[in-house]
Amino acid sequence: MNEPTERGPGDGGTPPGGPLPPPPYGAPAAVAPPPPAVDPVPEGEPYHLLARTARNRWWRPVVGSLFILGVGAVFVLGLGMVLGIVAAFSGVDMTDPEALFTEMPLLTLVTTALGLALTLPLVLFAVRFVQRRPAGSASSVAGRLRWGWMALCAAVALGAMLVSWGVSLTYSLLSGQGLGEFEVDWAGWGAFLPAAAVIVVLIPFQAAAEEYVFRGWLMQAFGAFMRTPWPGALVSSLVFMSLHGYRDWGMAWVFLFGLCLAYVTIRTGGLEAAIGLHVVHNVGGFLLAAAAGETASPLDQGSVSWEIMLGPGVELLIFLAVVLPLAKRRNVATRS
After folding, report:
1. How far apart are CA 158 and CA 160, in angstroms?
2. Hey, CA dihedral for 133, 135, 138, 139, is it positive or negative?
3. Where are the residues of the annotated region Disordered (predicted)?
């Protein structure tokens, strides 16, 4: 018969030398480690579902949306008040709705673009501190902005925009309208260079901020409640359209533009393609207006004819036709 052997603590037996003494009186009890500051995004999910973390609750997207809307409105209205005060002291006739665009175009552009651009850090703050997930998950499924991919998309957008300008110009000539919107009275370098500097510096942030709000935050906020991306894409495009001043065919164009940006965001797993197209489109339009000495004219939106859809429509079609296969060929990640 085998003799029993002494078992160690790992074997469930009494440790050599007898049982361990109890902890000294008053010793602190074991404390569970605090929860992580942020939750990791769920693995294997598309971009619009990245807000479905362990901390996801119904109120987080709501509170985050109210925060972005409220503080963003304060920024925009505050800068608008500054513009109004400066205009009043400068003797601008504020009863004329066109006065700011014609008499103070550069300052109008600066305050408008800056007010919109400031919503970008608000989105990142809400993602990090309201939804408690990595701020980079607002950019893409990779958890960051994929700069190389965005630069490539911007290059495609530039080519598509130049082709669209050619289409618009050709239509204007064939329809007997002359050069149309391309009939530019050169404003001179003294007027163009300051405006171009402002456009190149501020407009990319303004366009990127709109993408983070509409194709980023809003689509992921809907994704926190439902798995299909299309309600978020439709609602974000409608809100995007409503915040522009266009009417008639212009409204249809802005809605279609927003919907295409939502589609390419879903298909490429991030905001890079949408930002690239939006930045190039806006910068090109503002530079063309600045060359004619009408720096703020793109902000003076209103009723437009159906012809406005021709060139930009071609721009969208070319961009999607090139970028989507390119993303597949380059194995751009579409899931976390």
Report:
1. 5
2. negative
3. 1-38
Which residues lie below 8 Å from residue 248, measured CB to CB, with a gap of 6+? 303, 304, 305
Residues pairing with 270 in the sheet: 140
- What pLDDT, in 10s, does the model give residues 9-55? 445 555 555 566 666 665 566 676 777 889 999 999 999 999 999 99
- 269-300: pLDDT as tens digits: 999 999 999 999 999 999 999 998 888 888 88
**Rg (alpha carbons) of the chain, rounded to whole number:** 27
H-helix or E-strand spanning residue 15:
none
61 has a pLDDT exceeding 70: yes
DSSP letters of 67-103? Answer: HHHHHHHHHHHHHHHHHHHHHHHTT--TTSTTHHHHH
Residues 6+ apart with CB under 8 A from 161: 280, 281, 284, 315
Both tokens assigned to 243:
């915040």
As a whole number of angstroms, the distance between CA 184 and CA 41 comes to: 50
**Residues 303, 248 contacting (CB under 8 angstroms):** yes
Calculate the alpha carbon distances from 1 to 4, 97, 182, 326 in Å.
9, 105, 104, 76
Would you give the DSSP letter of residue 50? Answer: T
User: Does 312 have pLDDT greater than 60?
Assistant: yes
Query: How many Å from the N-terminal Cα to the C-terminal Cα in the chain?
Result: 61
Residue 90, CA distances (Å) to 83, 103, 104, 232, 242 in order: 10, 10, 9, 44, 32
The residues facing 231 across adjacent strands are none
Over residues 301-316, the mean pLDDT reads 83
Taking the C-alpha atoms of residue 200 and residue 286, their distance in angstroms, rounded to an integer, is 9
Whole-angstrom CA distances from 17 to 8, 14, 35, 283 are 11, 8, 39, 80
What does the mean pLDDT of the chain come to?
89
Q: How many other CB atoms are found less than 10 A from the CB of residue 236?
A: 24
